[in-house]
Amino acid sequence: MTSMTKEYSKPMTKVTFATGVDGVFVDELKSRVAEYFETKRISDKANALMVLKTLSVLGLYFIPYGLILSNQFSPLTMLGLAVLMGTGLAGIGFCVAHDALHGAYSSKPVVNKVIGLTFDLMGASGYMWTLTHNIIHHTYTNIHGIDEDLEVSPLLRLSPRSKLLKIHRFQHHYAFLTYAFSTLFWAFVKDYKYFLQRDLGPFKNKKHPFSEVITLIVMKSIFYAYTIVIPWMVLDLAWWQFVIGYVAMQATGGFILGIIFQLAHVVEETQHPKANAEGAMENGWMVHEMETTSDFGRDNKFLTWYVGGLNFQIEHHLFPKVCSIHYPAISTIVRDVAAKHGVRYNHHATFKQAVISHYRTLKKYGRDGFFAPSGA
Predict the structure, then answer these.
(1) What is the four-CA torsion angle of 69, 71, 77, 79, rounded to 10 degrees?
(2) pTM for the whole thing?
(3) By percentage, how much of the chain surpasses pLDDT 70?
(4) For 330-367, b where at least 16 C-beta lie within 10 A, e where not — what string?
(5) Which of 38, 263, 352, 376 yields a CA-CA distance of 20 to 30 A from 300?
(6) Residue pair 245/79 in contact by the 8 Å Cβ criterion
(7) 3-class DSSP state for residue 243?
(8) CA distance 217 to 223
(9) What is the pLDDT of residue 170?
(10) Using an 8 Å Cβ cutoff, are 320 and 286 in contact?
């Protein structure tokens, strides 16, 4: 990793990316990706394989749910089914909702809107995700003070430019446990916090459409009803057995989601660039995305299938409106063009290597000289 400023940086509120400096690289990359779809005569949206995967991960969530409600199994078996539900929950987030909310599932906005509601059905606000992830995170990746994904919890220091707390020296030990609680926090706290928050990333005094407030209330109510109220009324379980099963489902989904998304930006190779005093970044946006993002496990076909191609995060960040089913194919183009123009292409050959790199990064950001000055 290149050297980084070993001091706390004041958060930026607005930045601009350089224009023109990466023109040749950007033009060739866009041209070759477009040429790929034209030559193959295929759409860059979902295909039959994507639809089949969608049905599969929906089944992975709702079939165990139906079996649990049948009340025909022992508590231990139901616990196993709850874990399967959590696996399906993460899969729906990866393979279905994520593409739809990016407008990558279909060329028809109404189709993306409807499919995107699966995100709300999992307990999270699709509207707020679009705001914080699609707009803020994808535009200002790894920029301290703007990228909301770097501020998921005060317990975690995910940027070398964030203020260091004493507890962070232990974060490489407990971080993975905190990921397990991410969907619980999301369903019961995070969305409400963001809706009530006055400032959000670069947005100041943000006002949300009334229709989205209503959608939040309705979809949260549906989620609480089918995951808590109905099972509570139907299942022949002690209260503590029900709580264990519910937490197991959420913890499984949260753990998987948390790890996958962290491996894309908080590893040893990814950068956390800082704007100058005028808020200007050194590079253009596409090069910035390549410097702050990393792929992993590209040859692992099951991983690619299950996480919706999000192990190809570079391709996703550069072409977010292209369906994830196409990422493996266009990754060859991205790597070739990047090598030709001397642009860095971060990647780990395996999932395990990426996890180890993330662990090392957490340890470094918590202890190895990345300290904020006293009183900052």
Answers:
(1) 50
(2) 0.90
(3) 94
(4) bbebbbebbeeeebbbbbbeebeebbebbbebbbbbbe
(5) 38
(6) yes
(7) helix
(8) 10
(9) 96
(10) no
